[in-house]
Model the fold of this input.
Amino acid sequence: MSARSVIRAVRHTIGTHPQSEITLTAHCLSGGCGWTLAATADLKAADLAMMTHTGRTGHPAFARTYEDVALVRRLELNEGQAGIPPLPTPH
Done:
């Protein structure tokens, strides 16, 4: 007798975990400047800090990195899943 399996496609969605926050870091791309923005969840304050740096130095370009905790959930009424899982503890 042979083993049988049934494979079906399951649709998912992905988004920011509702118990987490988006953080932003940035650094100036003008050669040798060295200006950096520490990680912050205050995105408006981050924008203001970069604009202030531009106003003081004339440096207009920044590399920004956004980070969040992603949560993947099944679209089929979250079949077999309890509510939203808690955030994992950092290692």
User: Anything to note?
Assistant: The longest strand covers residues 23-28. The chain has a mean pLDDT of 88. Residues 13-72 form one domain. Helices lie at 43-57.
